[in-house]
Amino acid sequence: MDSDAAMSVTVTPGAVAHIMENPSPNTDTEAVPEIVVQVVDLKPVGARLSFTASDGKDKIKAILPSQYVQVVRAGNLQNLGLVRILDYTCNNVADRPDKVLIIIKCEVVCKSMDSEIKSEADKQEEEKKPAIVLTPKEEEESVVVFKPTNALPPAPVALKPKQEVKSASQIVNEQRGNAAPAARLAMTRRVHPLIALNPYQGNWVIKVRVTSKGNLRTYRNARGEGCVFDVELTDEDDVIAVYGEQLRVLVYRLGTQIQATMFNEAAKKFYPMFELGKVYYISKGSLRIANKQFKTVHNDYEMTLNENAVVEEAEGETFIPQIQYNFIKIDQLGPYVGGRELVDVVGVVQSVSPTLSVRRKIDNETIPKRDIVVADDSSKTVTISLWNDLATTTGQELLDMVDSAPIVAIKCLKVSDFQGLSLSTVGKSTVVVNPDLPEAEKLRAWYCSSLKHFYFLVLSVILSTLFLDIILLNRYDSEGKGTSMASVGSDMGGSRAGGARLMYTDRVFLSQITSDPTLGQDKPVFFSLYSFISLIKPDQTMWYRACKTCNKKVTESVGSGYWCEGCQKNDAECSLRYIMVIKVSDPTAEAWLSLFNDQAERIVGCSADELDRIRKEEGDDTYLLKLKEATWVPHLFRVSVTQNEYMNEKRQRITVRSEAPVDYAAEAKYLLEEIAKITAC
Amino acid sequence: MDTSGPAAFVNGEILNMYVGRRVRTVVQAQREEGGLLIGQSTDGHQLTIKGASGAPMLRYVEIIGIAESNQTIRAEVCTDFGENFDPAPFNGLCKLANGQMKDMFL
């Protein structure tokens, strides 16, 4: 007897580990082994109790069902007491990495202890433990972000030995005893955070805002007719203070979302009640695991409300959760085509079509539609079809302001392969014009900087048009082997900034080179070019192994290392040097240029060794991205043109001798001079 | 593309030809007088811009709007072009767009 009593006055070592390893014990077939844990941090959460179950070494969050509330109220179980767990289940809570222990049946072993039981080893460990470092989670809803908030006092509280989690409303409540009546009412109504909801808890109240409202749809299935609609609910952002050993850490938890569906009677009852943007207290809904096929909200669970559910509008309560976007760049939309996943996009509106009426085949109903073209800083555009209200009202708003290049952030777009790739709004899509987001700022800055160069582009279009006119009407006489080629721009002279001076001598368009195969027959001819890099083939041999001393090509020698013919020596290491062809474009033609190390390094933005490392260590995607970033960038090139014979065919070879970045002001001046010359005659 | 309200490229002198119509130009912000921006056009004229307040001085600003007189524009859109803008090419563009190359523009 005595030994029994002694045994029961402490926790079972390894209890938590056992629970986590056996999350769903089958109590029909075998009894749960002896598990006694200490109840720490006991506090009411809604109509039930939450606590931390400790076995002296490990801890796990736990929930006590409502039937034990009486026990606690009567004082028969207090904080720091011991319980023997008879039946339980261990759950993953939506979006949290840690598990939650749901107690189904337990008995009190000891109603209270003096202090928290800790194993010896654990005590020593705790002293040395550093401050809590919270790692950011993958999902958006539970992003851990350090943000200051107005609701909490500015000075952090110094050392607190215990690890305690308090919600912001509790802290504020403690510190502001004289809160305004309305605020107090909200806080005394025990509201559960959405993230803590799970199917095993019936008694909860949530306070949520309707962030999306679907349409009331009718359906017909084997069981007859019915109607259904769903809403997306988001709860309040919250700040949690976590006390570590050294400091208090404020964790900003963004509101979580959950989808709530209503059928038939409930749908008819709640459809007029739920208004987009308003806040409601909801209780007595039921939860189940979300059907991944149909869900578009990031939550493991989804909610169903039947006629028994209680929905109460929160009078005067407003909180505006930040709309959480997950923007996809326009050039990254490819993989989403034809899938169910809805995407968010932000971009600059370039054009807005008038409203069109489209007749739906199914029921002959006509729906308004408007197409807008949106561009983002991936330098791609996409057509977005706005339907129904978005077409008529928002579409009109955009049309009125299209000249100011408004920025739109659109949530929940369907990606289809209509006309290659296009986006389409659905019932739950939202459009925000000129949103107050950092992405919008970035886009505005990108757009403005590309706008400045717009004028320059207009000039270059003028010049190339004039030039092409001349070519078509009055073919150059190529008797003088290249002399007429250089006449456009040959007598530039003038004063140009030092290094770039060369880039204006013998300036030609690509077509002037490619259309004359006789160039460079005897000796190389030099020209300057302004053109865009249009393609760098990723699967070409981009480099050669070079001697570190003399940069000549080395061969792999017998044994190890590399042999340099020029230096007549072996070296263990070699460097990689670029040698590649790139495709360039200008308004008149395209051509392939040979490119060597020095210029290639500037164009690609890193050395060949570095690019090789990126390809090997960071993978193909990063490598392709690096090449892509170099594409469609304009450069000034100094090239030499020679003629080679290859398989009895004479081929033109254009080699880059030097490269310079584009100085738009100087280019524009040059263009004007050229235009003046051409138009003068 | 909405081409119903094209804005003509203008400088100080050419503005005269487009009174009452939509124009676009670049001015260098000189000073502000009671909500009106006084800017220097790319050909050295002083232009008055309505509705373009808040432009930092001596920066180039693109103005798209309706020309109210041969010296005033009622701005609809202003875009900051910063300090690094050469007015000469823009001026050349205006002359070309309204002169020899008129047919290329709306």
Features:
heterodimer; A: 681 residues; alpha+beta; OB fold (Dihydrolipoamide Acetyltransferase, E2P); 4 domains; 8-stranded mixed β-sheet; 5-stranded mixed beta barrel; 14 helices; extended; disordered N terminus; B: 106 residues; mainly beta; 5-stranded mixed β-barrel
Sequence-ordered SSE layout with sheet pairings:
The complex is a heterodimer of chains A (681) and B (106).
Chain A: H1 2-8, H2 15-21, E1 36-45, E2 48-54, E3 59-64, H3 69-73, E4 82-92, E5 99-110, H4 120-128, E6 165-167, H5 168-175, H6 181-188, E7 205-213, E8 217-221, E9 224-235, E10 238-243, E11 248-253, E12 257-263, H7 264-270, E13 279-283, E14 286-289, E15 301-305, E16 310-313, E17 343-352, E18 356-359, E19 366-376, E20 380-387, H8 388-400, E21 407-416, E22 422-433, H9 438-473, H10 510-514, E23 525-535, E24 543-546, E25 554-556, E26 562-564, E27 569-571, E28 575-585, E29 590-596, H11 597-604, H12 608-618, H13 620-630, E30 634-646, E31 649-660, H14 664-680
Parallel strand pairs in A: 3-5, 12-15, 20-22, 29-31
Antiparallel strand pairs in A: 1-2, 1-4, 2-3, 4-5, 6-10, 7-9, 7-13, 8-9, 9-12, 10-11, 13-16, 14-15, 17-19, 17-21, 18-19, 19-20, 21-22, 23-28, 23-30, 24-28, 25-26, 26-27, 28-29, 30-31
Helix pairs in contact in A: 9-14, 12-13
Chain B: E1 8-9, E2 22-33, E3 36-41, E4 46-50, E5 60-67, E6 72-82, H1 87-98
Parallel strand pairs in B: 1-2, 4-6
Antiparallel strand pairs in B: 2-3, 2-5, 3-4, 5-6
Subcellular location (chain B): Nucleus
Pfam families (chain B): Rep_fac-A_3
Main location (chain B): nucleus
What does this molecule look like?
- The complex is a heterodimer of chains A (681) and B (106).
- Chain A contains 14 helices and 31 strands.
- Chain A has 681 residues and is α+β, with helices and mostly antiparallel strands.
- Chain A is extended, with a radius of gyration of 35 Å.
- The two termini of chain B are 13 Å apart.
- Chain B has one helix at residues 87-98, and strands at 8-9, 22-33, 36-41, 46-50, 60-67, 72-82.
- With 106 residues, chain B is mainly β.
- At the A-B interface, strand 17, helix 9 and helix 14 of A face strand 6 and helix 1 of B.
